[in-house]
Amino acid sequence: MELKNSSNKMVEFLIVGFSDLAAIQTPLFFYFLNVYILIICGNLILVILIIWSPSLSTPMYFFLCNLSSLDIVYTSVTCPKLISVFATGNGSISYGECILQLYFFIAFGSTEYFLLTVMSYDRYVAVCKPLYYSVVMNQHVCTFVAIGSWLGGVVASIPIATVTSTFDYCSSNLINHFFCDINALINLACNDTTLIHTVILIQGVVLVMTSFIFTLMSYVQILSSIMKIRTSSGKHKTFSTCGSHLTVVTLFYIMVFVLYMRPPSSMSLSQAKILTTLYVYNIPMLNPVVYSFRNQSVKQALRKLLKSLLQYNGL
User: Fold this and answer.
1) How many domains does the chain contain in total?
2) Angle of helix 232-260 relative to helix 210-227, nearest 10 degrees?
3) How far apart are the C-alpha atoms of 8 and 265, rounded to whole Å?
4) What whole-number percentage of the chain has pLDDT above 90?
5) For residue 286, what are the contacts with CB-CB under 8 A and spacing of at least 6?
6) Bridge partners of 94?
7) What is the pLDDT of residue 228?
């Protein structure tokens, strides 16, 4: 099926989604709807909790607030459209909307690399340089790097989205994915794709690998400092301050390397889109759980908030 204008540009794409699983379309609809609701509610509660609680007014929770806000908008780029496809059976998306979806998906994904790296550095300073923590991670610095992370993601997505928008799609308009994924669009392009592969490679090395190396270096220093602590209780207490973030970072980079740092022929698009759902939706859904269940400060703040709400309602 082809829909083109006179300039050979595709007017409309059709998102295939999970149409190959026709027998379970209704269960999948409710699954992704519930996942999206959990992501929005869980991360929104965490944002409200951090803003409301004075005990969480620290750089670590400031960055966590940014991460939760990011997870809300990041999943909102793709999930509502996917839910709509399940509900209506109509996977059509205009060319412009497709490029915008790709742009924001890459932008918010890139922002996550930056934020997780900054959060790793924050934990490094807290554990390895505690006497300088309030000086190094002061309010102005935290605000500056948070804004820089968001702006960095916005800028990082421009090259890929710009090059992709120049493609001609001459074979088909069927996107074998649940959103306008870059690899799915490359497979439909009839142009020479050398440039886009080069851009992706450069961005992967500069952004992904650099962020990973800085994060890894931070945690090597953190673990080295923890090992020097003599008491087991001291080690446990120190590690607990960064354990939640380490869990999230580990899950995040495992999925990134499995999905994107692999030979193109090692995985079909059908396999890739199933794994992508874990990367795009499950990690944002798990973030509030990981940070609340593994963090005493968050649990205490949540109890105080619930108690205040109950008292306000006279219960």
Assistant:
1) 1
2) 160
3) 29
4) 40
5) 248, 251
6) 12
7) 81
pLDDT digits (tens, 9 = 90+) for 45-96: 899 988 988 888 889 899 999 999 999 999 999 999 999 999 988 889 999 9
Residues 291 and 80: their CA atoms lie apart, in Å, by: 25
- Helical ranges in 53-205 per DSSP H: 59-76, 79-88, 95-128, 133-136, 139-156, 158-164, 182-188, 194-203
2 lies in some domain: no
Per-residue CA distances from 241 to 94, 125, 133 (Å)? 46, 12, 14
Could you give the C-alpha distances from 237 to 8, 127, 199, 230, 302, in angstroms and in order? 62, 11, 43, 12, 21
Give the separation between CA 29 and CA 26, rounded to whole angstroms.
5
| Max Cα-Cα span within the chain | 73
Q: Is 138 among the domain residues? A: yes
Please report whether residue 105 resides in a domain: yes
Domain containing 63: what range?
12-312
**Which CATH number is 206's domain given?**
1.20.1070.10
Among 47-51, 65-69, 227-231, 305-309, top mean pLDDT goes to 65-69
* Residue among 280, 307, 311 nearest 39 (CA): 280
On whether residue 113 sits in a domain, the answer given is yes
Q: What percent of the chain has a predicted confidence (pLDDT) above 70?
A: 89
For residue 312, name the pLDDT band (cuts at 50, 70, 90). low
